[in-house]
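Journal club prep — side note

Before the paper discussion, L.F. wants everyone to see what a predicted structure for a comparable chain looks like in token form. Sequence:
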Amino acid sequence: MENLKQLIEVKLNEYILKNNTSDDKQGELLKHIFEGGKRLRPMICLAIGQNYNQYGNEILEIGLAIEMIHNASLIIDDMPCMDNDEYRRGILTVHAKYGQDVAIQTALKLVFNALNKIYTSIGTLPNRMNKLSEANRIIYQNIGREGLPLGQYIDLGFLKNRKFSIQNQKNLIFKKTTTLFNMSFLLSYIVFEDDANKIAMMEKASKWFGLAFQLYDDFLDITQDANANTPNFINQIGKREAHELFKKCVSKCSNYLRHLELKMDFFDALFLKLEAGVDAVMTTV
């Protein structure tokens, strides 16, 4: 897993250096934005790409693009009109350090640059018109009106009235957390595959993974979220039921990936890491 992360870090540093100018200090700003990230979403892209011996640079570009969109969404999430957070990953949020105007402009720039990277990368491929059409579907489904923005809207609804049904919690996960994982699994996969049935199966795998990851994250944040009265699926349904659901999600995702005959080294290691985190909480909380 670490070798994949290093590839992403190198690509990110190239992007930061390319966008560094003496007048607007873009390099310093971008370093601040990307500092401390797990890089999980682009690592998933690379793990899928490892099954094929071509288009390595295209997959790297797509992975970087999704990391850019992810960080743009965090910038917006942290704004005073949203979650109103001053710290993320132990450092000042973008709006807290550079101002709200810079935060908004930078988030927009990241998204538009990311989309350009995705379309440029997929536009170089054979059968590019069909692949671009499929990429459009994936992008709109996940960061269009009914995707990530709707997830943030649902989240804001909770922050305002502090009442959240289990169904709303599920909708929040599928519209917010799962969306960028969907893009990671699917945009990398369509670089190599055109079969609609296989793509549909990969989409199912990605959704099960997104739910598993959010459950893992909620397990780690049980106490913190309870004290802050913020949405947490484990606090809603209970540890035991959430643990069973988590195991089901991991199993479902793994089965779909194996059915697609993907190399499982990365994903098996990732599942073990998530399971270890959940099991540790189950024995201590």
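L.F.'s comment for the group: The first strand starts at residue 87 and ends at 88. Keep this in mind when we get to the figures.
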